[in-house]
Amino acid sequence: MSTTWDTLITDALVFDGSGDAPQTVDIAIRGGRIAARGTGLPRAEAARVIDGSGQWLMPGLLDIHTHLDLEVDLDPRLPEVVRHGTTTVLVGNCSLGTCFGQQLEGDQNPIVDCFTRVENIPKKVLGKCVETITWDNTGDYMDHFDTLPLGPNIGAFVPHSMLRVEVMGLKDSISRDPTEAELREMERLLEQAMTQGYLGLSTDGLPFHYLANAPHTDQRIPTQFASFRELRRLLGVVRRHDRVWQTTPIIENRAKGLLYFFLSSGRLFGSPLKTSALSVMKFVLAPKASNAFLGVARLVNSALLQGRIHFQALGTNFRIWADGIVSPIFEELDSTCELIALEYDDVEGRRALLNDPAFIEAFRRDWFHGRKGRNLATLKAKLGLPDKIVIRDLELMIFDGAPVAEWNGESMQQVLERLQRFQRGQAGEARSEAERTALAAFPTPTADEADFMLHLLREYDKSFRWYVDVGNTDKEATLGYLLHPNALPGFNDSGAHITNMAFFDANLMSLKLAQAEGPETVARMVRRMTREPADFFGLDVGSLEIGAQADITLVDPEALKGWDSNEHRALIHRDLFDHRQMVNRSDGVVTHVLIHGEPVWQQGDFTAVLGSRSLGRALRAA
Asked: What's the CA gap between 9 and 120, in Å, rounded?
């Protein structure tokens, strides 16, 4: 019997991405696109019927800040994205990406060099990714997605670090300014990429983003060597095409950082430059810092300057794990940065450094900077304007994968205090033989927290894990940022920092925060994660209009209400990488995900169609 529609979803409460109040309607799909919307659509006209009663239906969610450039060629399904209702991801962020190919140069491997420390991805994992690369230019990169059985849709930025490497070579890109001919070549390649549909240009200004391969481990990634003049000229290309500048702030020099944000101004530079910047959250050590970012956005976006800048917001608490000292936040300190720069398997090298008196002195100085003594750094920290935002308060550092089972769930401060009582003769402080052995191994006396951390690193290297909440511990403040007119949800970093954090499900946490406020706020939040970013980045997704590609997510609101991301993060071994990765689990919250009209996730599992053929597509900005 012939049917009118391939799929009919019935009786769901539909948040269509417009921000309007939700309505209970049926959605019909044919040929991968929305074919009809209404009440009481005939079930008999559909080959497949999905009962949406009691569920929220919305356009597939967008993840606007990912580093899935590498994973997508190993597993185009991107399953850790799909299971949480995300159907579109943006790659090429933070000046890093693969659109120029392998870019191998003698014994230098720029992709591995740039990604390893900036995104905390082990070299052996990156090596597997680089081996899959078969293209050597931006056009073939976009075209190669047509040959993959893509799950989600992919949009890409031109990454500035890789653009510099392409034109100047790695060594020169971190040691000198480009010649006029090289700058013109960068403009030409960027212009070409804009005509090919790239979203714009990504750059980076964070001071703790270093290269990982000798002899450059003390150098930052190439984008940070660019002058204001270079960026202005390249962004002129982006501006002419009405594309987007994705960037991270220059936080070392606040005046310089402000100057660079003025590049968004239409009043100063002829037309507004759409700018998506990292990031706005309530930092534990600098709770008012985001007010400054939002104040900058308010100024730049004012009628006076006519800019178009927003800051990316994270929908949950910013929880970061560390393997020993290996964590993105500890790149901020000179001494721990020196430890992290050593090769992943160089245990002896780290131990030698940890026993070097000069290093110990530097470590102690860094550990207590802004935290001890009567000095300007301590005063600034007390005022919420610290020089360093890396948390070194043992009370806030929680064991999770400790060398002694009894320590798991305890703060390092609790363990230090137990150790000090044990060293004063209170043998009963040891709750097991394993704990007794571990406590006895500490140097006596362990006078302070720096001594405590140094011993953990010498004794266990990277084989103990702990986490700290760096920001967004206040849910009310987090919701405020997500809904702020000068912010946009999406600082998720999906696919990066693979053992340090996982925010694949941050969109769902944003929905959960909105849910507590009521349906009107949920409607606003759905708009903020679908139609608004799609419009901003120039993408034809995020809609349930007739004729739109049928990318759809269904959520069980009752399951969402009882779910918390913090309780469902897991460190698992992924055969894909032959390495462990932090992931999220929201099973039961997302009931169905459809991409191009095909169910790819339902009843808590992936369907056979995901990965069997191409569903998503390379999105070309318009």
From this structure: 41
